[in-house]
Amino acid sequence: MASKKQTVELIALQCEVCKRRNYTTAKNRRNTQEKLEFKKYCPHDRKHTLHKETKIK
Ligand SMILES: [Zn+2]
């Protein structure tokens, strides 16, 4: 059964150190209302850094 309303939103994950957007992911607005934060590898800093949710557009 296909849902009519899309609650999934595409977001970018921005490195807190160099402010580059290294990753994109999908977020379910209904389940997740707080800002997403992930510890991910940044190829620019060459280490794991905190990446925070930002809008893609
Ligand atoms: Zn970085």
Give your account of this protein's structure.
The termini are far apart. The radius of gyration is 13 Å and the shape is elongated. A hairpin with a 5-residue loop joins strand 1 (8-15) and strand 2 (21-28). The chain has strands spanning 8-15, 21-28, 37-42, 47-55. The chain is mostly beta strands. The chain has a 4-stranded antiparallel sheet, with no helix packed on it. The mean pLDDT is 92. Residues 15, 17-18, 20, 42, 44-45, 49 line the site of zinc ion.
Chain-wise SSE layout:
Blueprint: E1 8-15, E2 21-28, E3 37-42, E4 47-55
Antiparallel strand pairs: 1-2, 1-4, 3-4
This protein binds zinc ion (ZN).
The site of zinc ion has 8 residues, from loops.
* Global structural class: mainly beta
**Helix residue percentage:** under 10%
Q: What is the multimeric organization of the chains shown?
A: single chain
Major sheet attributes = 4 strands, antiparallel
Q: Ranges with pLDDT <50 over ≥5 residues?
A: none
Total strands: the figure is 4
At a glance:
The chain has 57 residues and is mainly β. The protein is 0% helix and 54% strand. The N and C termini lie far apart (30 Å).
